[in-house]
Specification:
With about 525 residues, the chain is α/β, with parallel strands linked by helices. The chain has 3 domains: about 50 residues, no CATH class; about 160 residues, Ribosomal Protein S5, domain 2, CATH 3.30.230.10; about 180 residues, Rossmann fold (3-Layer(aba) Sandwich). It is built from 19 helices and 19 strands. Bound molecules: zinc ion. Zinc ion (ZN) binds next to loops.
């Protein structure tokens, strides 16, 4: 069957013209996609032009995200979709959910007068299915019309899909606006909400049913064809309250926590019960700097999923060796690039402490890298009263010695910061103003620290030796004091480390021969 080339070109040109005209007249017409489909399938010059200009690859032009919230905070979950020749397949859903989605998809597609979809959809497992269903259905419908190929900014979808095609959801946008900006989305589809544009260029459209949502997505995609997705705004979500909110006094301990977060320094608080050691320790989580791309990648390779925040793992006193190494895997390597909290250090099993010490020394487990910040707390003596003004410590020197020996000098030496925390007298302690930019400062200092190496700290040793005043520190401790001094200088935005910085750094190391219990 031969077609005259002239007729072929003329037909293609006519089709292209008709396509452009149709778009110009009615950009919302559902016929558009049909024309476009024909164009691409024909593979004519003009058709390729459309494809080159507006699309990247098959199903690779843009992304549909579902807004998923657990508790107060929400996140964007990407719906991954690829074309198949066979029927609809779903990955990441339970059997019931899969059946439910297939039934709904059949109903929706026949409702909209379309043939059953052929595609593979993948969603991350363990996400709540109901909040992803609408986005999955929209992705499927848009893919059917080859609109996901179009290069255009990404879309975030909020709401749940009913069997009759209506969209339900909360009466508020929850945190979806922020999540849309954080993920570079330019359109937010949400149930019943007024049509608005935010200052940062996000279009918010309220849709009562799936037909309307599909129509709005189509209009958006064709209007923004050829535009790139906005660069992702990598902003650390500022907490609603200051990390130190509710902690009165304990200024030195707060500064120690900031140093630990910015410099990934191991930290130990010791002192009588009631001094707020545990409370302070748990604040560290809120101070940690955001993960870098490399760190995110490393954690994803260990855990099998992209992390949102730095990992926090806690070892409880009753945990045995079995739990530390479950199924050949170590509990500790999950703390990589995060924090390992070990409260009541002296109540931990000896074996547990040895394991922690081993990991800190070796920095690896099998082929996995293991690097975490150790954050611990313990009483200063067996009775716990050491250091209290209103109570008497009844422990003998030997008992205290034995108490500290439980931790062992090797592990103790690993703590860059070792600070005594005493209960504050709430009647006399002055109310201090917390630094509102603390998190930004920590992130900045952390960045600077990434560029430093041991050579920087070695150069400070002569300055340290003039400040030791007879204190006997191990080489490791000396280097850690020098590192801390650079962090102290960084917080003051000073390029030069002074003797005062070294002396301040030494004040965060109050154990060893002195142990400060007298
Ligand atoms: Zn005591």
């Amino acid at each position: 069957m031969g077609i005259c080339p002239v007729v072929w070109v003329a037909a293609s040109a006519l089709l292209f013209f008709a396509y452009r005209l149709q778009r110009a007249i009615s950009p919302n017409s559902s016929e558009i996609s049909q024309s476009k489909l024909t164009m691409v399938q024909l593979g004519t010059e003009s058709g390729l032009q459309v494809k080159q200009k507006g699309t990247k690859s098959l199903f690779g032009g843009m992304n549909i995200y579902a807004y998923h919230s657990e508790g107060y905070l929400g996140e964007a979950v990407k719906v991954q979709i690829s074309p198949t020749l066979r029927s609809l397949s779903l990955l990441g859903l339970s059997v019931t959910e899969e059946r439910q989605f297939k039934l709904k998809a059949k109903a929706m597609f026949s409702l909209l007068g379309k043939e059953s979809p052929k595609a593979l959809i993948q969603i991350p497992p363990s996400k709540k299915y109901a909040s992803l269903e609408l986005a999955m259905m929209l992705a499927l419908l848009l893919a059917k019309d080859q609109l996901l190929e179009v290069l255009c900014p990404d879309i975030l979808v909020l709401g749940t899909l009913n069997l009759d095609g209506s969209i339900a959801g909360m009466p508020t946008l929850l945190g979806a606006r922020e999540v849309a900006s954080e993920n570079g989305c330019s359109l937010l589809i949400a149930p019943e909400t007024p049509h608005t544009y935010t200052q940062d260029g996000l279009e918010i459209v309220g849709c009562s049913d799936i037909a309307l949502a599909l129509h709005q997505c189509r209009r958006f995609i064709l209007y923004h064809e050829g535009e790139q997705t906005k660069p992702v705004a990598k902003v650390q979500r500022s907490p609603l309250v200051h990390p130190f909110s509710g902690i009165i006094g304990s200024e030195k301990a707060k500064k120690a926590l900031a140093l630990s977060a910015a410099g990934t320094l191991n930290i130990l608080f010791y002192g009588p019960p009631g001094g707020g050691k545990t409370l302070l320790l748990n604040t560290l989580e809120k101070l940690l700097p955001p993960l870098s791309d490399n760190e995110r990648e490393e954690i994803a390779r260990i855990r099998g999923e992209m992390p949102k925040t730095r990992p926090i793992m806690e070892i409880l006193p009753h945990m045995g060796e079995k739990e530390l190494y479950k199924g050949g895997e170590s509990f500790l390597h999950l703390a990589h690039r995060g924090v390992l909290i070990v409260d009541e250090l002296t109540n931990q099993k000896e074996r547990t402490l040895k394991t922690i010490s081993f990991f800190l020394e070796k920095q690896s487990f099998g082929s996995y890298p293991v690097s975490f910040t150790l954050a611990s707390a313990m009483n200063g003596c067996p009775c716990g009263n050491m250091g209290r003004e209103d109570q008497l410590c009844i422990c003998s020197e030997r008992q205290r010695e034995r108490h500290w020996n439980k931790v062992g000098s090797a592990l103790l030496d690993r703590f860059d910061i070792c600070l005594r925390v005493l209960p504050e007298n709430l009647m006399t302690v002055p109310l201090s103003q917390e630094d509102p930019n603390l998190l930004e400062s920590i992130a900045e200092v952390w960045q600077k620290q990434q560029q430093r190496n041991e050579q920087t700290y070695l150069k400070l040793l002569p300055l340290l030796s003039t400040s030791l005043q007879g204190r006997n520190l191990s080489m490791r401790s000396c280097l850690s004091v020098c590192k801390m001094a650079t962090i102290i200088a960084d917080f003051k935005k000073c390029d030069v480390v002074t003797k005062e910085d070294i002396i301040e750094a030494l004040s965060y190391k109050s154990y060893g021969i002195d142990r400060h219990w007298r």
